[in-house]
Design goal:
single chain; elongated
């Protein structure tokens, strides 16, 4: 049994299950398997050991750094815990753990401005605890991490001699969270309940910092990027309090992945008001948002915020980077993290045929670089075809291409395999590609297809707000030709071209591109059914009710299912026969939409002439 003294607060006798402690502090502490049921007691006892009010009895171990010692980073940054405790989004059972944590913290020397705390790392192995005339020092050996975190607690006027195994050390931040502030906040929460939520504050933070609104909501909830062990990330009640869908919040969480554990604490260390009661006043959360935006911009720089409609479209795109990051890539390409090590990887047996644009980081085991490349080559045709004229993300696509080509032209690749000329190919003997249909990215970038798409954007031929995927906007003469040839009104003629050409002419997409109401769309589709140009059906993942006659190819996410004839025109690779046909690969758009609409119409007329 650990000894206690008369100064021990009543809560210390409570034991909290380690899972409840780590879930309540998720994203702020780590090492879930290193925490035990009395870890808060251990933290409190460490504080009393530093203060000199507790001494181990004979045969009793001194205090050890609880858990995996990650909690020490809360010293001077406990404001993030306080914000989470006050948030109405926090689950009641976790709020109780946080309030007890804050009560404990308020009685430790960690809130004493007279004490100086320093954090570092030591070389070697082994744990120790020291208390002498120079203050206190603690180290814990973590075998699983092969790491040795180190904490110094220095009373006023004391200087500790440098530890001979010291790797580095730095002073702890001294932020919000005095003894009186913590006790007052806890008292207010227990008396009034959590602070009121203000959706307007979410908008204020999003606009001021350039984050998405779900990410801003998570920040103001004191939950900026959860640890993976917090399962489920947010439950139904928490999502309802934030008023966002699960996919939106997951994208927001991924967006905040730029914040590591220390970054989450630093961002929110000083955003609470001097008097915690201000949180319950009108505009209180808005003032927190203003301070959070300032802290974000100091650390990350203010980023342009994409239009909400564009962000939603990016969210549906299913790239391997967050929707906001994809939009920022197009809004500010010069600041985008395009790595310098682009090169061409090729099969040694046939380097001229199977080439792929990659980065040196792929080989070194950094998947984020590959995710970025994927986002670039998925995002460029998406911005061109699926965003309206005048959209700032769409307008940024030509600049993304310029920056990409500038990166490709540099000669500063770490491995010296950067491709510097159109006719050169770097062959990486050790590299093995999955599949042999992956050279489309390089071909798309260099065969003129990309240039023609970007020229369509810069030409500004579309009226503002119109979509290239609407043939009435990009090829009005062709729509008129289709209408006259097939004796159709304009709407059915336009819809027919979209069904012939576009990979995903779902009802939702068509109505967005064309600006149609459901009734107008239904009327156009009915006319095509009457003429026998399309058939009605229900097919998985199609998102529409009318289809071109002929064989159909299924697809697994993220690839779309589609008519086989259209799939071949778009360059898709199909596998199987009959009802087992499946889309296995779909490259980017093989041409501009005016070109593709024209080719699809020509092919349909030729097929009709052959009696297909």
């Amino acid at each position: 049994m650990h000894s206690t003294d008369s100064n021990t607060a009543p809560w210390v006798a409570r034991k909290w299950k380690s899972a409840r402690v780590t879930s309540a502090l998720q994203g702020l502490v780590s090492g879930g398997g290193s925490w035990y049921d009395d870890e808060l007691v251990r933290i409190e006892r460490t504080g009393r050991y530093i203060a000199g009010t507790w001494t181990p009895e004979e045969g009793e171990d001194g205090p050890v750094l609880a858990g995996d010692a990650s909690w020490v980073h809360l010293i001077g940054q406990v404001g993030v815990v306080a914000l989470r405790a006050a948030s109405p989004v926090t689950r009641p059972e976790r709020r109780e753990v946080l309030l007890n944590f804050l009560e404990m913290w308020a009685q430790t020397p960690f809130v004493d401005p007279e004490h100086r705390f320093r954090l570092g790392r030591l070389e070697g192995e082994g744990s120790f605890t020291v208390r002498d005339e120079h203050g206190s020092a603690f180290a814990r050996w973590l075998p699983a991490r092969k790491d040795r975190p180190y904490l110094e607690a220095l009373p006023p006027g004391c200087v500790r001699p440098p530890h001979h195994e010291l790797r580095y050390i730095e002073d702890c931040h001294r932020g919000w969270g005095s003894r009186d502030q913590l006790r007052r906040l806890v008292s207010l929460i227990r008396e009034r309940g959590p602070m009121p939520w203000d959706p307007a504050a979410v908008v204020e933070l999003s606009d001021a910092a350039g984050t998405s609104r779900p990410a801003a909501a998570l920040i103001l909830a004191g939950n900026p990027g959860a640890g993976s062990y917090y399962v489920p990330y947010l439950d139904a009640d928490e999502r309802a309090a934030l008023d966002f869908k699960a996919a939106e919040l997951e994208s927001g969480r991924e967006e905040l992945g730029v914040l590591r554990e220390g970054g989450r604490m630093a961002l929110l260390a000083d955003v609470l008001p001097e008097d915690p009661a201000d949180l319950w006043e009108p505009g209180g959360l808005g003032r927190v948002a203003a301070r959070a935006a300032e802290a974000w911009n100091v650390r990350h720089g203010k980023r342009p915020r994409p239009p909400e409609r564009t962000w939603q479209a990016a969210l549906a795109l299913d790239t391997r980077i967050p929707a906001t990051d994809l939009c920022h890539l197009f809004l500010d390409p010069e600041r985008a993290p395009l790595p310098p090590g682009f090169y061409l990887r090729a099969w040694p047996s046939c380097p001229d045929r199977y080439r792929e644009l990659c980065t040196i980081w792929d080989v070194m085991g950094f998947p984020d670089a590959d995710s970025l490349v994927d986002a670039v080559f998925t995002g460029l045709p998406w911005a061109y075809a699926d965003l309206p004229a005048g959209d700032p993300v769409r307008n940024g696509a030509p600049e993304v291409v310029r920056v990409l080509r500038k990166v490709l032209a540099r000669g500063d690749s770490p491995a010296g395999v950067l491709r510097t000329g159109v006719t050169e190919t770097s062959v990486l003997e050790a590299g093995v590609l999955e599949g042999r249909t992956v050279s489309w990215r390089w071909d798309w970038l260099t065969d003129g297809t990309c240039d023609r798409m970007m020229a369509r954007i810069t030409a500004a031929d579309l009226p503002p707000g119109r979509y290239e995927s609407d043939p009435r906007a990009c090829v009005p003469d062709l729509v008129e030709e289709v209408a006259q040839t097939l004796d159709l009104p304009e709407d059915p003629a336009a819809l027919y071209l979209q069904l012939l050409t576009l990979a995903v002419p779902s009802d939702r997409n068509v109505r967005r591109w064309n600006g149609w109401t459901p009734a107008r769309h239904k009327q156009a589709a009915a006319r095509l059914v009457e003429r026998g140009l399309v058939v009605e059906d229900k097919r998985p993942r199609a998102g529409r009710g009318v289809f071109l006659p002929g064989p159909w190819a299924r697809a697994a996410k993220p690839l779309p299912p589609m008519e086989c004839g259209k799939a071949r025109r778009l360059g898709a690779r199909l596998a199987g026969v009959g009802e087992d046909r499946k889309v296995m690969h779909l490259p980017g758009l093989p041409g501009t939409l005016p070109e593709l609409f024209t080719e699809a119409w020509r092919s349909s007329r030729e097929a009709e002439g052959r009696g297909d």
